Amino acid sequence: MARSLTIRRLDGLWSLRAGGAVLGESRAVLELAESGHLPVLYVPRTDIAMQFFEPGERRSVCPLKGTARYYSIITKSTVLRDAAWSYEEPTVEAEALRDHLAFEADRGITLEQL
Fold it and tell me: Which part of the chain is the DUF427 domain (predicted)?
């Protein structure tokens, strides 16, 4: 079975938090649905306090989305290594994800609709 992906914009205002800090709010959150995977939410960088993020050396490659670059989240209370990722040069199919970040759900990061 061929893998596929669908990207759609979610309604409403969303809040991003980690380490006790509010890292951003957005009305432009995207949901990526990829066959064989749970949905992943992506937040535009323009809606995130990027001073909390430090680019790392880790990379991963997906044939459908491109090469992901990982970021650590640094707050007063914690450092979450490689807890966020971004497709900075996505494939044509994933172009909507450019300039967005996704987050590891099991690392104490919350992205919830207000």
Answer: 16-105
- Express each pLDDT in 88-110 by its tens digit: 999 999 999 999 999 987 888 99
pTM of the predicted model, to two decimals?
0.94
- CB 2 within 8 Å of CB 99: no
pLDDT of residue 2: 63
Per DSSP (E only), the strands in 14-108 are 14-18, 21-26, 30-34, 40-44, 53-62, 66-74, 79-87, 100-103
Distance CA 11, CA 74 (A): 28
Spelled out in words, what is the top-level CATH class assigned to the domain 5-113? mainly beta
Residue 29 in contact with residue 10, Cβ under 8 Å?
A: yes
Least confident of 2-6, 18-22, 75-79: 2-6
**Contact indicator for 17, 110 with CB cutoff of 8 Å:** yes
Contact 51, 24 (CB under 8 A): no
